[in-house]
């Protein structure tokens, strides 16, 4: 069973996709947002997607449409093309994970979410693990996908790993198979295979049995996402060890 000191993970609030403010041209998961988080001494949460040529790029969505002047899937373009994509409201450019590591350089903790389509593809996970193995700052990797975290447990056990989760598994658009999968995820049925060092749970779904038992029985930390209101902050203070926040200064 996993056990390690993660005091650094919960010592400071975690800026969701960096300390971003679109109205000021500071866009999520971009260099200015990360610089602002570092200046505020916040930990940083970010997301990584794969490029067409196998690089890990710092971006949340599967497609470019929401944040940039381009359209189409991120993984359809090689990394050099992605780095040339213009965002809608900033002169920042997309970073590779390696470039983010260079920017942060251990100044604050990093929490990297490995995006997945639950399709069994692990090339991005392997690339992130290879880069993370050479990083010397405080770093945690996490994913919604248990297959990603199980791979890290088996192949990179020294890296800090966590599961991102929520409790809602009854949304009307879900198929019966998808509901079953989500119910299993919410119950941490994958625990023997993943043995996560921490959980990152949706604040609206707390408290719940999984997070309470994880903290009380296993004595492992639970962080929460994404805190945006006073009510969320009060709930997080009761049931989580640290917040992932946006829209205010924690």
Report what the structure shows:
This is Glycerophosphodiester phosphodiesterase. InterPro entries: GP_PDE_dom (IPR030395), PLC-like_Pdiesterase_TIM-brl (IPR017946). It holds the Pfam family GDPD. With 250 residues, the protein is of the alpha/beta class. The chain has a single domain (7-245), classed as TIM Barrel, CATH 3.20.20. It contains ten helices and nine strands. It has helices spanning 7-10, 31-39, 79-83, 97-104, 123-132, 146-155, 176-186, 191-194, 209-216, 230-239; strands at 14-16, 43-50, 56-58, 110-114, 139-143, 160-165, 198-202, 222-227, 242-245. It has an eight-stranded parallel β-barrel, surrounded by five helices. α10 (230-239) links the parallel β8 (222-227) and β9 (242-245). The protein is globular.
Outline of this structure?
This protein has helices at residues 7-10, 31-39, 79-83, 97-104, 123-132, 146-155, 176-186, 191-194, 209-216, 230-239; strands at 14-16, 43-50, 56-58, 110-114, 139-143, 160-165, 198-202, 222-227, 242-245.
